[in-house]
Write a structure and sequence with these properties.
By secondary structure, this protein is mainly alpha-helical. It is built from eight helices and no strands. Helix 1 packs across helix 2, helix 1 packs across helix 8 and helix 3 packs across helix 4.
Length: about 190
């Protein structure tokens, strides 16, 4: 009996998918935030600017502003650790040429329960169940698909990328370049907020 929400056939893995704002979006937001106008949100103004410049809306994933992101990353780290432990045990079995029972990977439900207890400290069992059900649905992608988003994204891979494969060096270099461009814009009379 496996309580994981199943992998959907044809679901694409997160390889080569952008998970945050593009460099252009970050630059435009720095300018937009320095010039608040009317009742429009920075997000709607960003989409208007992007449509004017590129013909497309922002590609930032809905998950980026998710308050559960730390718990979801924890679940991904633990899942990755379980998979790695199984792999190492298989290699050990091959080397020693004697099969042993492989460690079980924790289910999405078990990982969600652990993340709930670690990050949310729910006051009672009803709130705890509600929280771990929500985390389990988000981790599998069911939660986002119900909202009509990310039908081709494998969310387990998405969160694993964010948790264990994220390139902080590239992000740091991009931030430095963005700061330099903002400084040049300021020197030329364009207000930016970064």
């Amino acid at each position: 009996m496996d309580d994981e929400i199943p992998y959907i056939d044809g679901e694409e893995y997160a390889i080569e998918t952008r998970f945050g704002r593009t460099f252009l979006e970050k630059l435009l937001l720095a300018i937009i935030n320095a010039h608040p106008v009317g009742q429009d949100t920075p997000e709607s103004r960003l989409n208007t600017a992007l449509r004017a410049l590129t013909g497309e809306d922002s590609k930032v994933e809905a998950v980026a502003q998710d308050g559960d992101l730390a718990a979801l990353r924890f679940m991904a780290e633990e899942r990755h650790r379980d998979e790695y432990d199984c792999f190492l045990q298989q290699m050990k079995q091959r080397k020693e040429n004697r099969p042993t029972k492989l460690p079980r990977k924790r289910s999405d439900l078990k990982l969600a329960q652990e993340a709930t207890d670690k990050f949310f400290n729910p006051p009672n069992e009803q709130v705890r169940k509600s929280t771990y059900d929500r985390l389990r649905e988000k981790f599998s992608g069911t939660y986002y698909r119900k909202q009509g988003k990310g039908h081709e994204v494998n969310y387990r891979e998405y969160f694993t990328y964010q948790a264990v494969e994220h390139d902080y060096v590239a992000e740091s270099l991009e931030a430095q370049a963005l700061d330099q461009i903002c400084e040049i814009l300021r020197k030329n009379g364009v207000e930016v907020e970064r």
